[in-house]
TrEMBL record:
Known pathway: Protein modification; protein ubiquitination
Domain spans labelled Protein kinase: 185-424
A molecular function GO annotation: ubiquitin protein ligase activity
Listed SUPFAM superfamilies: Protein kinase-like (PK-like), RING/U-box
Coiled coil: 56-90, 407-434
Name of the protein described by the UniProt record: RING-type E3 ubiquitin transferase
Keyword terms, alphabetized: Coiled coil, Transferase, Ubl conjugation pathway
EC annotation from Swiss-Prot or TrEMBL: 2.3.2.27
U-box domain ranges (all copies): 453-527
Enzyme class label: transferase
Amino acid sequence: MTIQEKKEALRIKFLEIKEAIQLSREEAKSHVEGQAKAQWAITLCTRRAEEIDGCINDELARKPDLKRELDTTKDELSELHTEVEVTKSKLSSILELQHELSIKMQLSSVARSRAEVQLEKVLKQRMDTVKEIEEFRGQRDVLRRRITFCREKDAIGNASMLIEPRLEYKEFSAAEIRTATDGFSNLMRLKSGGDWTDVYKAKLHHTSVAIKLYSSADVDSEDTFLAKVKFLSLMRHPHMLSMIGYCSELRCIVFEYMHNGCLRDILFSGTRGSKRRNYGLNWQARICIVANVCTGLCFLHRAKPRPVAHGNLNPSKILLDRNNMAKIYDVRIPLSCDKSDLRSDIRAYGNLVLQILTGRNWARLVEEAIMMDQSKLIEVLDPMAGEWPLDIALELGRIGIKCLSIHEDKELNMTNLAREMEKVKKLADEIVANGECVVANGRNLDDHEDSTEFPNFFLCPILQEVMKNPHVAADGFSYELEAIEEWLKNGRDTSPMTNLRLKGNLLTPNHSLRALIQDSQKRQSTSTR
């Protein structure tokens, strides 16, 4: 080998030796790391073994206690077995008794079924008998009506011609007005909310009336005043304040007198112990009021040839008669009326509903109560109304809020609201009829005047006066003959009470009601003497 080859061979061997040394170092290092890990594992195992020994010692120490607990449990289990055996014996006795009772129940149910069958037969026979009696009574009443009608036909015709037509307004002289108001004495002047008004209570032709004076700020000319008189004379509806007459010289209008005054004075009287506050309105009366106002407002919005908006509907514009029937007044002459005016009326009506619910002038109370929790609504209701049925209060609150949010429901109108209110009123009547709630009408506020009260059905729904010649119309309600005939003559074909279309113009004398009214008047005149 040449020197060069020897050098190369030696270099190769050197590299191999170097690699072997490196491998030996790495193996030694790995052995050292393995030894350290083994040492750590040994330490860990030793510690774990010590812990296990401690646990074993603890378990051995607890073994006597566990044995005692086991013996106690065995004793309790033995006692339970004994109790179970006793209970089983009692249960078997009860089952035997139950079997005997079931046999007796079966026998009694069979006897009851037989009795029910016999009772049904008896009831059926009774119903058939009652039906026959009613048929005979109906035939008798028809014959009596025909005989009476034939006898009194001419008398009724003559009497109707003699009676002054009350639907026509009358012009009073200044002397008559001054005499009736005692020279516009403050004693005759009416207050509202503690403030004087331009309205005077008076008596004309033995009838209580309210006379309102109009200043130059209200009517700037005689033509404007006469236009207002003509407009108000057309507002004939059971829930619109009726105009009786006027005086052009004094520029005053004579209205029917509403004995229970203004709704605002009853709801928002500042003195909790005042006469009107103590008088209050129960919840059923309040439902009737909102229903009455809804019907009156519906009448205005459906007026022909164009609708009429009230423009300022609030509790001060609602008056109540002696029976708490509500009537709207102070309707503005409609120079123009668009949808925004009608929507404004609907919003005002919604606010009125919520005020009647709470007895406060803050509609937000009801909305917040309903949004939070339905039961919270009870906390904001007027306590003077008594205990409201929750479902009716919620429905009224929903209607009120819907009216205030009319901008979200462009199709909402008073006709739809009248249908909803009719459902609410019907539900309230059913609750009262079923005896779920006792409701009584409030007493008349003016006990010192006009104390002679008649039942509501004695009053003509149109004139609000005691009827002299009551007749039944096609809607089933009784009216003064003059009033309903005038109503029909003016081209109206709807019911004054329900605003629904009448099925005909036939008027039937209500002799029974007439006799009742006459007897009541005779008794009152006798007691007065």
